[in-house]
Amino acid sequence: MKKHKVTVVGAGHVGATAGQRIAEAGLADVVLVDIVEGLAKGKALDISEAAPIMKHDCGLTGTSDYADTADSEIVVFTGGLARKPGMSRDDLVKANFKIIKSCVESAMKYSPNAMIIMVTNPLDVMAYTALKVSGLPKNKVIGMAGILDTGRFRSFVAEELNVSVENVFAFVLGGHGDDMVPLTRYSYVAGIPLEDLLSKEKLDAIVKRTRGGGGEIVKYLQTGSAYYAPAAAIYEMVEAILLDRHKILPCSAYLEGEYGQNDVFVGVPCKLGADGLEQIMEIKLSSDELALFAESAGHVKQTVETLDL
């Protein structure tokens, strides 16, 4: 039986770790692409040599040539400049816009029907770039945002309450930035509303830490940004699509009227399956939540307007 094929553009920490997770789970053959000669080849070879130990037969290819990515079902974009201490995600916009525009054009030349998962920051803006450059329908371009932010939120809640992370259910919506919108009303621990278990002060502190979660890691690392958790979020999206899971996950999606927003990528609950983004789930938001969501979406729009699209 023919294996699935997934390309990961960018063989840095995020891309290589995502490729490793996808291959070791037996989901697909993986192609790592990087402009740095030898980087993708070396990492692909290293992961391949672990295959007998991890017991999988998925192939890994490292390359600088997009011809090797031909007929990929999914292309994940992780390439670009990473944040340094003191930088916001928006500080990366002009440099990464040029990188992503070029990479999307190259990938689409060989896999014109592939789905795109965007990871490069500022994520919502780069997803918008990919949609416009690729010409793909909106169900085939999805941003990895809310899964990572929600994972951070869930881990902080589990830590505070000393419970299993598997018992914590939550949604973080809005743009992938400091104005993201954790929905505490829709967050539960084993079915118990989170607001019944934590004081407003503790909940507000967790929300604040979630919004700054990426920056907290950048501060500690000094020379890079998070990659284990982002790679896990990529893996969950790839699995949902390739295995046709119809899984509801918070992702950055192109809105056309949903939640009162148009012509913008922003994080919302999405159903992912073989057709990519199969449905945007509209949940009822309070007036305060809608205002925060609109503010977050507005920030994304303002950044997009600075680009030549």
Task: Explain what the structure shows.
With 309 residues, the chain is an alpha/beta fold. The chain folds into 2 domains: 5-143, Rossmann fold; 146-304, L-2-Hydroxyisocaproate Dehydrogenase, Chain A, domain 2 (Alpha-Beta Complex), CATH 3.90.110. The protein contains 10 helices and 14 strands. It has helices at residues 13-24, 39-49, 51-54, 93-110, 123-134, 146-161, 200-211, 213-221, 228-242, 287-304, and strands at 5-9, 29-33, 60-63, 74-77, 115-118, 141-143, 168-169, 172-173, 181-182, 188-189, 192-193, 247-256, 262-273, 276-280. It has a 6-stranded parallel sheet, sandwiched between helices. The protein has a 3-stranded antiparallel sheet with strand order 7-10-11, covered by helices on one side. Strands 12-13-14 form a 3-stranded antiparallel sheet. A hairpin with a 2-residue loop joins strand 10 (188-189) and strand 11 (192-193). Helix 1 (13-24) crosses helix 9 (228-242) and helix 6 (146-161) crosses helix 9. The longest helix has 18 residues, at 93-110. It is globular, with a radius of gyration of 19 Å. The N and C termini lie far apart (41 Å). The relative contact order is 0.14. The mean pLDDT is 94.
